[in-house]
Amino acid sequence: MAIYIGDKTSTAKIDRMCMEKYGISELILMENAATSAFNRILKIEDDLYRAAKERVAGMDLEKFDRSIFSGLPFNRIGILCGSGNNGGDGFVLARKFQALGREVDILFVGNPNKLTPSALTNYEIAQKMGIKIYYYKDIADLDTEIEVLMSRMKGYDLLIDAVFGVGINRPVASSYRPLFEAINSYRVKNRTRLIAIDTPSGLDPDLGLPTYNKDDEGIAIRSDYTISFDYFKKGFLNYDSEEYTGRVYVEGLGVGLNILEEVDLKDRFILREDVEMDRSESFAHKGDFGRVCIFAGSKGFYGAARLATEAAVKAGSGLVTLVTQPDVQEVLSHNLIEAMTSNYGDEVRVETIVKSADAIAIGPGMGANQTTIDKLSYISANTSVPIVVDADAINIFSQADLNISSRYVLTPHMGEFSRLIGVDSKIIKKDRLYYAKKYARENKLILVLKGKNTIVTDGYRALVNTTGNQGMARGGMGDCLTGIIASLCAKYQPFHAACMGVYIHGLCGDEIYKKMSTVNPSDLIKIIPNVMKMMYN
């Protein structure tokens, strides 16, 4: 199922579309949301219990540690509810868990007089069902209130955060700070699992950081899991958000994907179906698999050129040629037995290679110098095929004489992208999706912003990668990706090729990481054909 990515305005648009166009009431939406969250929590509980059982399998009984099962199953549950619709979700969850036979308390930290209509309905149902509700409404004098709340929380196996939802647009009132700090401290000290509903309370869903202003640095509840509804909040792409969200799940509201498309959500995560490949005809010859030309390497920087070239070969190109400096050709020509080589001095042959290529890559190991500028300008003027720009070619990209178009695929990491657009990387990290789409749109090209959850965008749509792991944080990985994308560009449209490339690259890393703690570029290249075979439709 497609998982879309949206900002905090998307929720209001979806709700309005459901109610006005399809006649789905807010109460039904609230019930659906709580039901999907309820089912996910039970699945989390089951997964934790299974993992605990696996850990004790075969364990010496004398050394048996019962703390492994601490808090499992979730027999005693405390649900922190506010007065908005997020609190309404919490009231519904309380009813469902009580019906399951669990001991449930509602810890109401809102104002009963400010309950939204739908939240009020479910609040009254909870009251009539006899669910215990403890009130912490005197936020102005919290010392005693917090002490009582902390005492109340000691027996819970699970805490559910349903205080504030996705609609928060200002810093959490300073009066709530002691409460949130106490909850965060309690969670760590007592190892009580905490699940946030839709978004952790106090977290800006667009930035992935606590809402703040110049007078308030912000505060948010820190969760082990976040259950988001209908779409992935774009702020969760911020690497710093994970300390608040924990693991994120996206659950549907039971209204269908067509509504997400109707409210114009275009950004989403890459699906396995996006990467399915066409099988080649039995009568195909090497030219049908694409001709790829790679400009890479310089004296002392042979590895980058070799990795990019070998990756292109293993990714399926019929003919791959490395064009480089004479001394690099002399070193690598003996190693690249499955690829051809040429050097800058052989101008006639280089021209033939460039004009016959179906895709070209440039940059790995070349150096940010005049030679790289000249070669990029030359390629741009002499061919109309896709051009994958990486490494040093990105650093000089703005200096070359180019006719920029969607045939360009830029593959910067965060540092290169920061230099490219002249914005501090700390600022970019707060909203990678915005800056990536903005640059791609303004320059009419394809951008691959590398890192965890690599973003591929043409400026109007973005696909975010889900494969890859921390073991891949090694030199040469980017060179491998360049070769893979260049090879795919010889057969597929640049945007599609880039999406396929990052997914396959990450999946190769995942396959290796299952057996090893680190992923070496040379090992990754070896298994590219095996992983690509998995992608055949």
Architecture blueprint of SSEs:
Layout: E1 5-6, H1 9-22, H2 26-56, E2 76-81, H3 85-99, E3 103-108, H4 117-128, E4 132-135, H5 142-153, E5 158-162, H6 177-190, E6 193-197, E7 203-204, E8 209-210, E9 225-229, E10 232-233, H7 242-245, E11 247-251, H8 257-262, E12 268-269, E13 291-295, H9 303-314, E14 319-324, H10 326-332, E15 340-343, H11 347-356, E16 359-362, H12 370-382, E17 387-389, H13 392-395, E18 408-410, H14 414-421, H15 425-430, H16 432-443, E19 446-449, E20 455-457, E21 462-464, H17 477-489, H18 494-513, H19 521-534
Parallel strand pairs: 1-10, 2-3, 2-5, 3-4, 5-6, 6-9, 9-11, 12-21, 13-14, 13-16, 14-15, 16-17, 17-18, 18-19
Antiparallel strand pairs: 7-8, 19-20, 20-21
Helix pairs in contact: 2-3, 3-4, 5-6, 9-17, 9-19, 17-18, 18-19
Share of helical residues: 40-55%
End-to-end span in angstroms?
17 Å
Give the overall shape.
Answer: elongated
Largest sheet: 10 strands, mixed
| Number of continuous helical runs | 19
Helix- and strand-based class? Answer: alpha/beta
